[in-house]
């Protein structure tokens, strides 16, 4: 094989969680060449090595089979959502899908993970992600700065509570834009939150929220 590139493949956000159909797994195996590496990441994406010159065609084939394809590397990962065990409506499935479409693949200083939980039980571990969204009855709380890696792992802190569904995308894209504009080089999001302080982030977020209310 000539030059290779790596793409991130995931099933859509759905009730039941990160579910592949047998046909989709066959499709992934078919488009990958025999010497391709397929990696299971810890953020609900499969990394698939494909020939660079065929990557667009492969992406189309995978999407045709119902899968989603994103860039790998220094980008916002596709939303790491829960299983929506309380059902689509109670868990905010549509809000999660809309948010995912808005943020997945945005180029960022370091890989950025955004978690989404359909209730306060938080089984998708949103407080261990860079940004965590938790649905609370009819509104959403946002947490920032979680870090699951290393011996200095930390829990995300509450940034803002009581957001409406319509406010989720503008607020979270603004948080990401602000991080992109103000990170020092390849500064990790959790370090950046610690440096600029949760209080400053809360002020910025309040300004965004007041323009969306
Ligand atoms: S976070 Fe809540 S709604 Fe989502 S799977 Fe866990 S318990 Fe169910």
From TrEMBL:
Tell me the keywords, alphabetical order: Iron, Iron-sulfur, Metal-binding, Methyltransferase, Transferase
* Gene3D superfamilies xref list: Sulfite Reductase Hemoprotein, domain 1 (3.30.413.10)
Listed InterPro entries: NO2/SO3_Rdtase_4Fe4S_dom, NO2/SO3_Rdtase_4Fe4S_sf
Q: Name one GO biological process term.
A: methylation
Tell me if Metal-binding is a UniProt keyword of this record: yes
Q: Which GO terms describe its molecular function?
A: heme binding; iron-sulfur cluster binding; metal ion binding; methyltransferase activity; oxidoreductase activity
Query: Could you tell me which Pfam families the record lists for this protein?
Result: NIR_SIR (PF01077)
Q: Where is the Nitrite/sulphite reductase 4Fe-4S domain?
A: 108-204
Q: Mind telling me what this protein is named?
A: Cobalt-precorrin-3b C17-methyltransferase
């Amino acid at each position: 094989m000539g030059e290779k590139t790596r793409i991130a493949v995931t099933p859509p956000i759905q009730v039941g969680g990160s579910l592949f159909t047998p046909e989709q797994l066959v499709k992934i195996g078919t488009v990958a060449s025999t010497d391709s590496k397929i990696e299971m990441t810890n953020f609900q994406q499969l990394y698939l090595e494909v020939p660079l010159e065929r990557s667009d065609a492969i992406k189309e084939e995978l999407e045709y089979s119902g899968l989603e394809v994103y860039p790998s590397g220094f980008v916002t990962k596709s939303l790491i959502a829960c299983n929506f065990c309380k059902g689509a409506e109670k868990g905010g499935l549509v809000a999660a899908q809309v948010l995912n479409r808005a943020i997945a693949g945005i180029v960022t200083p370091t890989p950025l993970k955004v978690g989404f939980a359909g209730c306060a039980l938080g089984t998708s571990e949103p407080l261990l992600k860079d940004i965590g969204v938790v649905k609370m009855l009819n509104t959403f709380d946002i947490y920032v700065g979680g870090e699951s890696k290393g011996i200095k792992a930390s829990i995300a802190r509450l940034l803002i509570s009581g957001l409406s569904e319509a406010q989720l995308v503008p607020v979270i894209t603004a948080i990401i834009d602000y991080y992109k504009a103000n990170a020092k080089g390849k500064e990790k999001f959790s370090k950046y939150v610690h440096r600029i302080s949760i209080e400053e982030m809360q002020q910025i977020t309040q300004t965004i929220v007041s323009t969306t209310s």
